[in-house]
Amino acid sequence: MNEAIFRAINGLAGRFGWLDAVMIFCARYLMYALILGVAFELLRNYKRWRNMAVVSISSALIARFGVIPVIRWFYSELRPYQVLSQVNLLVAKEVEASFPSGHTVFSFALATGVYLYNKKAGWYYLFLAALIGFARVFTGVHWPYDIIGGMVIGVGTALVCDRLYRKYKNRRGL
Q1: How far apart are CA 172 and CA 174, in angstroms?
Q2: Residue 98's pLDDT is what?
Q3: Which of 28-32, 62-66, 95-99 has the lowest mean pLDDT?
Q4: Which secondary-structure segment (H or E) carries 156?
Q5: Residue 96's domain spans which residues?
Q6: CA distance readout (Å), 154 to 44, 56, 93, 98, 151
Q7: How many other C-beta atoms lie within 10 A of the C-beta of residue 119?
Q8: Which of 92, 95, 63, 66 is closest to 78 using CA atoms?
Q9: Domain holding 34: CATH number?
């Protein structure tokens, strides 16, 4: 099933130049726009969005640079272009293991952090995080299961970080 879904999504690549360009942008750079959005809100109204920024950015960093390396230490999945023939690879080959998608983990942790403090903006962030995951499959660098795993890990990490942060704040009386 993982391969069938991958082929259906990745099979859309290479048909329309404009769509390929949009998906390449989403797969490689949209994550940075999400970070800039959080930073912009923080600068615009520090007192109101400080907690959101702390939770969203810290959970994204912890998920990407703490949780993922541990998972990849114990479980290594080859990327689609390493296993399948005729993959429409639209971005440079990556050397790390495929599971879970680092871009997706980071984006969903960040988006969940935003959602916990601002539901309306959070829905936009979650949609954009899903678009990043879809684009990672579209461009040929991840399996669909890598994206699903990344979603679960990103959301879970943000929820844990938020809970710990709120406990810390309550103990400190902040």
Answers
A1: 5
A2: 83
A3: 95-99
A4: helix 144-172
A5: 2-172
A6: 26, 10, 23, 15, 5
A7: 9
A8: 95
A9: 1.20.144.10
Residue identified by tokens 């912890």 is 62
Tell me the mean pLDDT in the region 67-81. 89
Would you call 93 helix, strand, or coil by DSSP? Answer: coil
The total number of structural domains that make up the chain: 1
pTM: 0.90
Q: Which helix (H) or strand (E) covers residue 11, if one does?
A: none
Provide the terminal-to-terminal Cα distance of the chain, rounded to the nearest Å. 49
pLDDT in tens, 99-120: 999 999 999 999 999 999 999 9
Q: What is the pLDDT of residues 147-167, one digit of tens each?
A: 999 999 999 999 999 999 988
Classify residue 6 as left (phi > 0), alpha (psi -120 to 50) or beta: alpha
132: helix, coil or strand? Answer: helix
